[in-house]
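Sample entry as discussed:
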Amino acid sequence: MLQDELRQERNQKEKALRDKELALGDKYTMEQNLSSLKLELELKDQKLSSLAQELEELTFSGNTEEEVANLKKKKHALEAKLSDQEEELDELAGQVSQGAG
């Protein structure tokens, strides 16, 4: 009877050790999964940040293209005005020459 109790206690102790080892194995697996998920999340955050920056740059460059187009229009208008003023100056210079001559 005492031997049966000792055997039963030993079996329970062995079962408890096996359960502990299984639990430790599960814990290790879960920690590895958690670590992998954290790394994956970090990589996705970096990708998101990179894409946000790229979007911002594309948006900014879009505005810049619009500004360049506006500046080209203004330049063209100023060049036309300059050409008109040069013609007017030539006419005035011709009138002055004729008046002096």
